[in-house]
Amino acid sequence: MSSRPTPTASTTTRPSATDAPGPRALPRDALGLGLRPSLVGPLCETWPELGFLEVLVENFTGRAQLPRAQLARLGARYPLVGHGVSLNLLGADPLDLEHLGRVRDLVRAHGMPYFTDHLCWTASNGTHHHDLLPAPAHPDLVPYAAERARAIQDFLGVPFGLENLSSYVTWGRDQMPEWDFLAEVVRRSGCWVMLDLNNIVVSAVNHGFDPEDYLRAIDWSRVLQVHVAGHATRADGLRHDTHDREVSDPVWDLYRTAWRLGGPFPTLLEWDEHLPSLDEVLRVLRHALEVRA
């Protein structure tokens, strides 16, 4: 396995010690949870052992003070990493520097070691669609995506990770496998990968490819973090990325292969809807330890 570069914040834009705490590095084998509102109370009551929490930044960049106070309390106990759903990286609209400024403030305030968002588009002509939409995997789009990703990373001053999507349609203009498109954007931009294994399984079933082909294309030295989550299977066989149930066996099987190919890496469980008790969520998360043993 090649040596793994350490993701570091840009020396030109990283906040000074007088501005905010420095980024808090995560152990490479850390286990974390996606922070959801229903988990805040149980976490603050029991303070379970956790490697980190992933913060959906759109929930904490508004004016409401209660979410910010809750995040500050949790951030005093757990390392926080930032995740987003609205950068519109592959969209035609200019990057939203006002939003990016709020994200940068949040990253700096909590010493987040990196920030991630999706390799997709989410808005057009100023209208946000509130969905993560795929773009054609075409070589002509690579320079555009890489330039915008690099600009985001430089602006934020911390490593920026690109997440792969779950998808349900393909484009007639696709000219390269999705995994090659992701790898080439990462290579050209100097950014990083946020690899979602559940999304790979969902897309692999929906589009008929081998999920391990995706893993073999990844430069594991550029992987910041891996996601696992649950998904639904519709009556017609389509897999739907729902994040509302336990992680499926195919995702754990792919996780086992990923750990063999590229581990260690921080692992995060996403569970967005129909959350059971915190104890149950932690049980599912800690199953990762058994899978990679």
Short description, anyone?
The chain is α/β, with parallel strands linked by helices. It has one domain: Divalent-metal-dependent TIM barrel enzymes (TIM Barrel, Alpha-Beta Barrel). Helix content is 37%, strand content 18%.
Q: From the alpha carbons, calculate the radius of gyration and give it in angstroms.
A: 18 Å
Largest sheet: 8 strands, parallel, barrel
Q: How many discrete domains?
A: 1
Structural class: alpha/beta
Mean pLDDT: 89
- The end-to-end span amounts to 19 Å
Helix proportion range: 25-40%
Beta-strand residue percentage: 15-25%
The CATH top-level class label: Alpha Beta
Describe the structure.
This protein is of the alpha/beta class and about 290 residues long. The protein is globular. The relative contact order is 0.15. It starts with about 30 loop residues before the first strand and ends with a helix. The chain has a single domain, classed as Divalent-metal-dependent TIM barrel enzymes (TIM Barrel), CATH 3.20.20.150. Helices cover about 35% and strands about 20% of the residues. The protein has an 8-stranded parallel barrel, surrounded by 6 helices. Strands 5-6 form a two-stranded antiparallel sheet. Strands 10-11 form a two-stranded antiparallel ribbon. Helix 4 (about 140-155) crosses helix 5, helix 5 packs parallel to helix 7 (about 210-215) and helix 7 (about 210-215) packs parallel to helix 8 (about 250-260). Strand 3 (about 80-85), helix 3 (about 95-110) and strand 4 (about 115-120) form a beta-alpha-beta unit. It is built from 9 helices and 12 strands.
